[in-house]
């Protein structure tokens, strides 16, 4: 047998080094390297003397068992998952503290328990009484969920081993779990990884859908090692502003379905309510046209969502460095757009503070937002309101071209349905062929300076 190798894992970023260092070479964190338990390395041999056993190969075309998805009872949850829970799969659910992860999963567990499945909910953060109180508030106290407050993975798996495997197992959260076979406090990389490994193995062997709740660090990544994201089948993120009502469930990785569908929920007094038609949600009550506000028909997977983009420009008198702040959109993308507006359209933002906000706590990831952001910025700079009945979409290149985007006709159709009268988008190309709804007047633009002329 080969000699065990020493490995040191950074507790902050999960990177592995072969010797101990004071500072992690990857993330720069000090004193974060911890020696892992020794690992044994095997080498490939032409006989079976290593103690390994032969594995079975099956041809790809041989009919196998296709796992049947189970509906969770919350259509928005199923939609984000790509069509329901897959037995024997592991889902990692991340999100800011207090965003509603525990609430959502308790509701899912209750639905499954009420529709003939069995759900087990293990809380490492709250006492069973607290979870029960929440269930009462959600009107779910009668749901036959098996509830436990535990943090030892060995205890949890031993107990589960004595009963029939449940359809759904929720672990809230993976950072609170610990295994007595692994060194380190709960929440350290080796504990999180080891506990997740044991739980995932149990789920795969028994056809259980496992949901691991994961804490999120300040920069939005799921705390603990990135390897956790590689170990699970689905990574979901529950997003929103705590001060706003709406929550979006997004899948960032999905081995069984698409990753661009979202589930939309509203946090209400009695839990999360599903929002089946979200296209209106992120429009503020607009009456009079306001300078700096532009409506963007965004696409979330196959669904259009209309969002309002707000820009504010404050001229500075002194020579102080102007601030730029973006909420709900990419910072770098805004800097790029400002540079293109300066270089290609001759607009001057350099001595002004620029603020950009996407209404309703929504986070935009659709690249077609460029044109709407540009329109909002130009409108704010000139203090000229945009027409109240217009929507804007299109991607802007560094050369100042307005480029075609996907789903142009769905964007226009939805805008017309919601009462908008005109759309401004890319001219020509597959996305900008002017195929419009009769109710909507489409203006195709090819260069950013054309946009400035129209505002
Ligand atoms: P929670 O599910 O505990 O969040 P997480 O597990 O992501 O940390 O949700 C906590 C917040 O949700 C809390 O601030 C109160 C709010 N809430 C409601 O508004 N309505 C409800 O019915 C429930 C249960 C919670
Ligand atoms: Mg919680």
From TrEMBL:
Transmembrane segments annotated in the record for this chain: none
Protein name from the UniProt record:
DNA repair protein RadA
Q: What does this protein do?
A: DNA-dependent ATPase involved in processing of recombination intermediates, plays a role in repairing DNA breaks. Stimulates the branch migration of RecA-mediated strand transfer reactions, allowing the 3' invading strand to extend heteroduplex DNA faster. Binds ssDNA in the presence of ADP but not other nucleotides, has ATPase activity that is stimulated by ssDNA and various branched DNA structures, but inhibited by SSB. Does not have RecA's homology-searching function. Plays a role in repairing double-strand DNA breaks, probably involving stabilizing or processing branched DNA or blocked replication forks.
Arranged from A to Z, the UniProt key words for this protein are: ATP-binding, DNA damage, DNA repair, DNA-binding, Hydrolase, Metal-binding, Nucleotide-binding, Stress response, Zinc, Zinc-finger
> Which stretches of sequence are listed as region Lon-protease-like?
353-455
Show the domain comment. The middle region has homology to RecA with ATPase motifs including the RadA KNRFG motif, while the C-terminus is homologous to Lon protease.
In terms of InterPro entries, this protein maps to: AAA+_ATPase, DNA_repair_RadA, P-loop_NTPase, RecA_ATP-bd, Ribosomal_Su5_D2-typ_SF, Ribsml_uS5_D2-typ_fold_subgr, Rubredoxin_2
Q: Which organism is it from?
A: Novosphingobium malaysiense
At the top level, the lineage of the source is Bacteria
Q: Motif RadA KNRFG motif — list its residue ranges.
A: 253-257
Ranges for the RecA family profile domain?
Answer: 66-216
């Amino acid at each position: 047998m080969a000699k065990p190798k020493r490995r040191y894992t950074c507790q902050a970023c999960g990177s592995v080094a072969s010797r101990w260092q004071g500072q992690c070479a990857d993330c720069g964190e000090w004193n974060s390297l911890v020696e892992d338990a020794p690992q044994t390395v095997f080498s490939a041999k032409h006989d079976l003397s290593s103690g390994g056993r032969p594995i079975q190969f099956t041809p790809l075309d041989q009919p196998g068992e296709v796992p049947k998805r189970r509906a969770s009872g919350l259509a928005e949850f199923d939609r984000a998952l790509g069509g329901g829970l897959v037995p024997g799969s592991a889902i990692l659910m991340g999100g800011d503290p207090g965003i509603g992860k525990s609430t959502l999963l308790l509701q899912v567990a209750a639905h499954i328990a009420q529709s003939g499945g069995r759900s087990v909910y293990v809380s490492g953060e709250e006492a069973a009484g607290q979870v029960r109180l929440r269930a009462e508030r959600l009107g779910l106290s009668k749901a036959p969920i098996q509830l436990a407050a535990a943090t030892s993975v060995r205890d949890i798996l031993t107990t589960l081993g004595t009963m029939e495997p449940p359809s759904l197992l929720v672990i809230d959260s993976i950072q609170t779990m610990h295994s007595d076979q692994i060194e380190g406090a709960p929440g350290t990389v080796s504990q999180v990884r080891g506990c997740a490994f044991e739980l995932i193995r149990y789920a795969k062997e028994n056809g259980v859908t496992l949901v691991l709740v994961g804490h999120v660090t300040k920069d939005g990544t799921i705390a603990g090692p990135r390897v956790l994201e590689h170990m699970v089948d689905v990574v979901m993120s529950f997003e929103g502003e705590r001060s706003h009502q709406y929550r979006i469930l997004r899948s960032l990785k999905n081995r069984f379905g698409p990753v661009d569908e979202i589930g939309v929920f509203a946090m209400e007094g009695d839990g999360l309510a599903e929002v089946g038609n979200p296209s209106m949600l992120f429009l503020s009550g607009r009456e009079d046209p306001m300078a700096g506000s532009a409506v963007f028909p965004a696409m979330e997977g196959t669904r259009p969502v209309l969002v309002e983009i707000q820009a504010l420009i404050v001229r500075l008198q002194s020579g102080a460095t102007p601030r730029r702040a973006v909420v709900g959109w990419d910072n770098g993308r805004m800097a790029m757009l400002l540079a293109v507006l300066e270089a290609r359209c001759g607009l001057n933002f350099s001595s002004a503070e620029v603020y950009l906000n996407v209404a309703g706590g929504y986070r935009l990831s659709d690249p077609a937002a460029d044109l709407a952001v540009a329109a909002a910025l130009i409108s704010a700079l000139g203090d000229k309101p945009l027409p109240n009945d217009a929507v804007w979409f299109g991607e802007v290149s560094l050369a100042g071209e307005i480029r075609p985007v996907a789903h142009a006709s769905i964007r226009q159709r939805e805008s017309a349905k919601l009462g908008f009268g005109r759309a401004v988008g890319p001219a020509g190309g597959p996305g900008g062929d002017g195929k419009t709804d009769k109710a909507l007047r489409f203006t195709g633009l090819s260069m950013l300076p054309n946009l400035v002329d129209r505002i």
